[in-house]
Structure formats: C-alpha cells, structure tokens
Automatic annotation (TrEMBL):
Record GO terms (molecular function): oxidoreductase activity
Superkingdom of the source species: Eukaryota
Gene3D superfamilies in alphabetical order: NAD(P)-binding Rossmann-like Domain
Source organism phylogeny: Eukaryota, Fungi, Dikarya, Basidiomycota, Agaricomycotina
Protein name: NAD(P)-binding protein
Alphabetical UniProt keywords: NADP, Oxidoreductase
Cross-referenced PANTHER family: RETINOL DEHYDROGENASE (PTHR24320), SHORT-CHAIN DEHYDROGENASE-RELATED (PTHR24320:SF236)
Amino acid sequence: MEKRIGSFSQLFPPKSTWTAENVPDQTGKVVIITGGNSGIGKETARVLLSNGAKIYIATRSKEKSEAVIEELKRETGKESIFFLQLDLSDLVSVKTAAEEFISRESELHTLYNNGGVYAVIDKLTSQGFDMQFGTNVLGHFYFTKLLHPLLTVTAKNSPQGSVRVVNVSSIGHYVVPPDGIQWSTLSPGDDYLAVGKKIGALKLYGQSKLGNILFSNEFARQYGGEGIVSISVHPGNINTDLARNASAFTKILGRIITYPVSYGAINSLYAGTSPAASELNGKYVTAWARVTLPHQRALDTDLGKKLWEWCEEQVKDV
C-alpha cells in the first residue's frame, strides 16, 4: 500500500532513479499528446519520437505545431510526428479531432492528456464553461470518451497493461474550494464569473487538477478490466509557459523554485512507458517517478462518479 509523500518532498524531490534514458523502445506505438507543442508535452514528444513512437501532437495552433514538428524531426532524425487540430476549450473541435484521428489510425497505444491552461479567470470556453475546468477536465473527458473504443480495441491486441491513458494533474489539486469542487462555478454562462472571481484563479486551477485525478481514477475503475491503464501524474515544479497568465510575482517565484522542462516529462514518460507502470491503474505518480496517494478528496469515489455524470451530461448533445 502506497503512502502519501509529503508536499515538501513532492515539490523538492530527491534525485530521480528513473529518467528519460529508461524509456523502452516505442517502435510500433501510436501516441497522442495534447498540448504537445510546448513545455512538458513537447519534451514528452521528443523523447517518445526518439524511441520510435508515432506521435500526434494535438493542439490549437497549426503554425506553431508544424514548426515544433520540424524542429523535433531535425533533433531526432525521425519523421513519424504529425499535427492533429484540437482546441480543448471547444467541444465541437474535440469531436472533430477525435473523428479525424480515428479516420487515420486503427490503433492508439497511449493518450497523454497533457494540455491545459492556468490562472485564466475571466474567460469562458466556446460552450460557456469556466476556461480552466472546461479545458483541463471537460475537454479531456470528451476526447478520451471518443477515443475509448479505439483504446479498447488496441488493448485487446497488445500486451497486458501496455495501453495507457496518462492524465497530467498537479500538486495544485491540494488548493481547492472547501468541498473540493464548487459546482456553482461549473454552470455555463457569465453568472459563474462572479462566483469564480470570489474563489480566485488558483483555487479554480486546483479544482481542475483535482478533476483530472478524479476522472483518471473513475476511468480506471470503469475500464481497467478492458486492459487500459489510467494513471494521473504531478509533473513536478517545472519551468514552462503554462503560467503565462499568472501574476508577475508568481512568475518570478516560479523561476526560482522550478526545474527544467526535461524533468517535467519524467513522470508522464514513466506512467506511459515503464513496464512497472502496467500495475498502476488508478494510481497517482509524483516527482520523480514515485507512486503516492493524492489528497484524500481525490480518492472520493462518490465525488468521482458525480463528476463523471456531470461531464457525460455536458457532452451528450455535442
């Protein structure tokens, strides 16, 4: 039984015993990485491409993504990396992206739900949801739901535990409203904005990261029997452009206490490729490549089921 590693050790972890050098050969693997054109997603793509995987980076910006694709091709000498148009803040775009991928591929071995936004408090998604929860949780829920049949088919024809969904969360899931999820902030429309501003951007972000773990655990509970392994990860304190909307003070502090982006991919890569991670369905991985318990709220199966049902309701008519 895993123990809960203290917050200090998660923020300032000991030297990793598992690194990108330990990633096994990925030849024949088909992988999607949301948000794969920058930060942790880009580094994850670089390592997997280097090891032979076929990569789709699923993002909004075609121009930026194609530039990154050419960069990674030059760096790795590999050609199997492609762009998939995906805007997680628009459920119609999510549906289109999933349909496009399914039309192109007959297998999906690993889905990295990596993309996300941070500290956005005054914007709504295309369907009117809080930008952070709508993008980080609902968008990924719907994308995974649509790709689930393909994951299931792939799992039937793959070694046990090798087909995986990796959900990038954060230690920020500790910083949430009192009940974990403030449901009034999830109602679509401008009315949420006043409630959201009272709660604050940080707690809204934490709420979305809690949602990532709850979703990951519920997916594991529902579909683990199909051979799909669902794991959530805290990537560590990493210097990425995710905090581009944060305050100046937060940005300065972040530069002092963060690790290089190469470290940020360790946990995702471990969860997605390590043979040992085949046994981690429904588990949470923290820096670096250590299994731990998340906050107690993230282990609330009733809350996880409620969130799942809420997500199902929001996407049923897309």
